[in-house]
Amino acid sequence: MRASRPLIAGVLALASVAVLPTAAFAAPAPPANPNASEHSAVIGENSLRALADEAGIKVGVAVNTDLLAGNGKYRNIVNTQFSSVTAENVMKWETLEPAQRVYNWAPAEALIANAEANGQVVRGHTLVWHNQLPTWLTSGNFSPAELRSLLENHVKTVAAHFAGRIQQWDVVNEIFNDDGTFRQTIFSQAYAALGLSAEQYIGDVFRWAHEADPSALLFYNDYNLEFTGPKSNAAYAFVQKLLAAGVPIQGVGFQGHLDTQYGFPDLQNNLQRFADLGLQVALTEVDIRTFVTQKNNGTYTDTPADPAEGAQQVDWWAGTLEACLAVEACTSYTVWGVSDANSWIPGFFTGQGAGLLFDMHNNPKPQCDALREVLRNAA
Ligand code: G3I
Which family does it belong to (predicted)? Predict the structure, then answer.
């Protein structure tokens, strides 16, 4: 048990579940507190975030800032169900620095302001990644030394700009390939050309981020770390080298993009072995995809093609959260998007979808109830 919760709240929560399973997701009344921000929303005691509070963890969501601004139902779910938010795209390099040394802070600022008004913490995503880099950087004619300096400038400027407002930063994202080799990017190649190692490259980035924002917890974030294998083993060895060299790394993020066709990973073991190094761990981008049915016009639905795999999705959602709750150093569990209507999955995996907690119409799926049940059991 991570935190005790008042008996009466527990009784009320259980009673409301028994009577009306979706009551926790109904649109709340406007806030009664006259001092509350116009952006703040009423948090139901049976919401994911209230139950997560009692279980002693943050439950987060990746946010599309256009939908946050323009879709009331979406905004209501973000603010009432989640206690942590991650920018799905607007803190990536191409958005934040679209032209060299020209910064576009507004979309990320809007997300942080909304989070602060709603008592949410923010996960910063991401300072350094090989995707979603601006064209001026990827097609510029920069020497290795110039690339290192551009990297230093971006990391320090962004981390300093948001300093004090970010709980956890994904400082580097996806630095290993599935075979356990270190991923070749414009930055790793620049460091190699300068005669510097992968540890020196990643060490620089963490040191710069720490210097600019000493209060943020600094994470390395990646996918497929959930499974024991060449990638998670390489990451495990690499992180130990960073720690031995005194690099200010405080956490490892397990993205958690699962697919029913590949089996459930030995997630708890992997979370625990990184935690045993003295690090925080987190589930940072959970979604669980499967093949879905197609309409006559060829568009995909959010209905699993195989009902058995649909049922497996629900079990796996519970399993990912249970794995996090079983590891003391795992206190942050984030899902990668609100609803199946705006998930990245159908655009990247042909024929697949239904990966999130809410359906195409932003209504809660059984996956939601499964998470709430796990949280109730943990509190
Ligand atoms: O911004 C442009 C817009 O100007 C253009 O009109 C539109 C037309 O396609 O594209 C927009 O860019 C899209 C961008 O998201 C912003 O919405 C890209 O096409 C689209 O490919 C991009 O996808 C994002 C993806 O990262 C890029 O690799 C997803 O939304 C985002 O969910 C996804 O997130 C990643 C994490 O950051 C890291 N881990 C994996 C995860 C899933 O891929």
Answer: Belongs to the glycosyl hydrolase 10 (cellulase F) family.
